[in-house]
């Protein structure tokens, strides 16, 4: 898999080195020339990154160069400058609380002189590493003249007009056919199975959602359940998820399969139900036979709808009816394409010349809605005939034929995102399939990684993050958006979209057999915590540890976290943090700290009061003690959300809210 380009890190380094604050910092410590030379070197590398991204697909040497640049140079340089900035922020914060005499004495202290020497030495060392990378640039013939895609300005004009994924075009007949099948009786079967079969991107999930939410269907069945199965066909997990869909309540993970079976029997006996099992990959008859025994409690006429890409899966499940989903007609394909291009605005029209080209593009998509939506997003805002012809005649169509896949279309759309957007989207591969991504949390995570650089002082990182989310929705990288009072709350990613995003991020659970590459951003469940021992202590930037409400991590399991000293994001659930507080205090680079249902002995605020980079502090249902004077030391804090506070020591009534959102 291709390496993720660290464009945002390079841009952040250049911006930081060029900032007035860092120039002043360099003047104070006598390293202005060294920092200026470092800035020029980073700029020269940043200029060739886009060309390197294009060439790495065909050149293993370029791919190795990118990996070395990331692991050995750019990220260590980012960490080094971060350490300098942290030291400077702490000194300025502390000096503001001292009198003038103390400030003068502090400026002459041995610690400050020693830090100045260390800084000069470390800058020189990292400069040598950069020089080695620059030498290889000419050998690899990397071109600095590749044009950078810019998209932020266009989204301001169309900020609230993206097309919702729920506006599905061209599937009314398919929906009516399947609804009719669900009403048919199968005399020899109490519970019958209907399979929707088709290639990836055809819209099987979207169609089954239309059916599931149809008024006629909800009135016909007494109970309805929706379970996303994907490639982990675990019978106990499926039964548990069925119960959660039925009861709308979380189910204890420690319950045995027998207990879950009894609960399912109580809920389904004598009831005519509909169960949708979305995205089935399992070809094992044995697993399906085991699950099927638990589905026989319902009344006659109950139905199971499965969606799958494989006809073999449908055959192994012994389906009563197999519905082969075809592509959209040319007329419906063009209707969907124009709907995306015009942001769903029926008053807008495509001129005759572009319509002729557009219909040929729609025809080449072979009726696959995801491909049509993706190319529609690519053509948004493009009004020149040449731009449309470039898409029509693109080399990626031949790749689509060779691979019998729409992945080349998705890659083309991904490559036409701005470098900052690519980095933000790639970060989303942290989430697993069908995960409901909360918009506000994602933007806070992007901020923590430094992906949302502001071009002027009037901009807020949150505004840029919202613009990026809107663009990714318009271009169909995100889907199934939930909107409340006009504001986007959450969304999901299509599983095919995740495959274009590189391997810097990963989700780990009990099904994970081995790590691919050396990821920097990890979301994992407790049963995969053993993988943490094998991860590089210097590379990790994100650690999100998930536990079910029946689990609780012990202190010994958490000790490994202390080795990841460059973390920007840490999220823990249901942990005892008595001994970990000292470790959190040493995570100087932390920008995002989220603790849910954690127990802390002592004052957490004392432990984190020196985290001057911390932007987001979320404490939900935690037993913690807090002091407002400690919180006031968190000079970068923008979000502070706390529930069930154990004790608040109000030694200082006033908190500086200048940066808070």
TrEMBL record:
Transmembrane segments: none
Disease resistance protein winged helix domain residues: 430-496
Domain of life: Eukaryota
Keyword Coiled coil: no
Entry's Gene Ontology molecular function annotations: ADP binding; ATP binding; hydrolase activity
Listed InterPro entries: Apaf_helical, LRR_dom_sf, LRR_R13L4/SHOC2-like, NB-ARC, P-loop_NTPase, Rx_N, WH-like_DNA-bd_sf, WHD_DRP
Protein name: Putative P-loop containing nucleoside triphosphate hydrolase, leucine-rich repeat domain, L
One GO term of the biological process aspect: defense response
Annotated Disease resistance N-terminal domain residues: 11-97
UniProt entry tagged with the keyword Hydrolase: yes
Residue ranges of every copy of the NB-ARC domain listed in the record: 172-341
Pfam families: LRR_14 (PF23598), NB-ARC (PF00931), Rx_N (PF18052), WHD_DRP (PF23559)
Domain Disease resistance R13L4/SHOC-2-like LRR: 556-639
Record keywords: ATP-binding, Hydrolase, Nucleotide-binding, Plant defense, Repeat
């Amino acid at each position: 898999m291709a390496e993720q380009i660290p464009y945002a890190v390079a841009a952040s380094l250049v911006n930081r080195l060029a900032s007035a604050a860092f120039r002043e910092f360099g003047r104070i410590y006598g390293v202005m020339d060294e920092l200026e030379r470092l800035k020029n070197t980073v700029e020269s590398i940043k200029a060739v990154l886009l060309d390197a991204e294009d060439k790495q697909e065909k050149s293993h040497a370029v791919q190795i160069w990118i990996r070395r640049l990331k692991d050995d140079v750019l990220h260590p340089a980012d960490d080094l400058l971060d350490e300098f900035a942290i030291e400077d922020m702490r000194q300025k914060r502390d000096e503001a609380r001292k009198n003038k005499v103390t400030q003068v004495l502090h400026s002459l202290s041995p610690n400050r002189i020693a830090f100045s020497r260390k800084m000069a030495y470390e800058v020189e060392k990292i400069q040598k590493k950069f020089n080695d990378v620059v030498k290889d640039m000419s050998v690899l013939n990397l071109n600095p003249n590749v044009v950078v895609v810019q998209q932020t300005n266009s989204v301001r004009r169309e900020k609230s007009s993206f097309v919702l994924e729920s506006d599905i075009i061209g599937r009314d007949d398919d929906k009516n056919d399947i609804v009719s099948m669900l009403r048919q009786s199968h005399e020899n079967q109490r519970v019958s199975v209907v399979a929707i079969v088709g290639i990836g991107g055809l819209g099987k999930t979207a169609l089954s959602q239309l059916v599931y939410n149809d008024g006629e269907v909800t009135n016909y069945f007494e109970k309805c359940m929706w379970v996303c199965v994907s490639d982990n066909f675990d019978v106990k997990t499926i039964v548990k998820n069925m119960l959660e869909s039925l009861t709308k309540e979380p189910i204890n993970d420690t319950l045995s399969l027998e207990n879950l079976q009894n609960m399912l029997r109580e809920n389904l006996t004598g009831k005519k139900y509909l169960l949708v099992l979305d995205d089935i990959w399992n070809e094992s008859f044995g697993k399906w036979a085991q699950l099927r025994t638990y589905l026989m409690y319902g009344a006659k006429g109950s139905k199971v709808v499965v969606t799958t890409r494989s006809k073999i899966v449908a055959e192994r499940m012994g389906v009563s009816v197999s519905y082969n989903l075809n592509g959209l007609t040319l007329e419906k394909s063009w209707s969907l394409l124009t709907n995306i291009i015009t942001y769903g605005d029926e008053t807008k029209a495509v001129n005759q010349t572009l319509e002729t080209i557009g219909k040929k593009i729609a025809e080449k998509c072979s009726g696959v809605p995801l491909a049509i939506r993706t190319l529609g997003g690519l053509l948004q805002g493009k009004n020149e005939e040449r731009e449309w012809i470039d898409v029509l005649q693109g080399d990626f169509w031949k790749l689509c034929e060779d691979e019998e896949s729409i992945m080349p279309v998705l890659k083309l759309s991904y490559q036409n995102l701005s470098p900052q957007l690519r980095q933000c989207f790639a970060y989303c591969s942290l989430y697993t399939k069908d995960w409901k991504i909360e918009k506000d949390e994602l933007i806070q995570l992007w901020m923590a990684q430094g992906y949302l650089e502001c071009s002027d002082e009037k901009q807020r990182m949150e505004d840029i993050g919202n613009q990026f989310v809107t663009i990714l929705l318009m271009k169909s990288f995100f889907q199934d958006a939930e909107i409340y009072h006009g504001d986007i709350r959450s969304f999901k990613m299509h599983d095919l979209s995740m495959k274009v995003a590189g391997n810097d991020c990963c989700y780990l659970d009990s099904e994970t057999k081995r790590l691919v590459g050396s990821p920097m951003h990890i979301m994992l469940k407790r049963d995969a915590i053993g993988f943490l021992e094998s991860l590089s202590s210097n590379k990790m930037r994100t650690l999100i540890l998930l536990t079910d409400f029946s689990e609780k991590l012990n202190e010994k399991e958490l000790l490994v976290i202390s080795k990841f000293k460059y973390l920007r994001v840490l999220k823990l659930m249901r942990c005892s943090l008595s001994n970990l507080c000292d470790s959190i205090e040493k995570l100087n680079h932390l920008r995002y700290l989220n603790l849910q249902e954690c127990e802390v002995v002592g004052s957490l605020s004392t432990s984190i009061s020196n985290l001057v980079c911390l932007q987001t502090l979320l404490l939900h249902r935690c037993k913690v003690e807090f002091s407002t004077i400690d919180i006031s030391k968190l000079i970068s804090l923008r979000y502070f959300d706390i529930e069930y506070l154990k004790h608040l020591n109000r030694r200082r009534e006033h908190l500086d809210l200048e940066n808070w959102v």
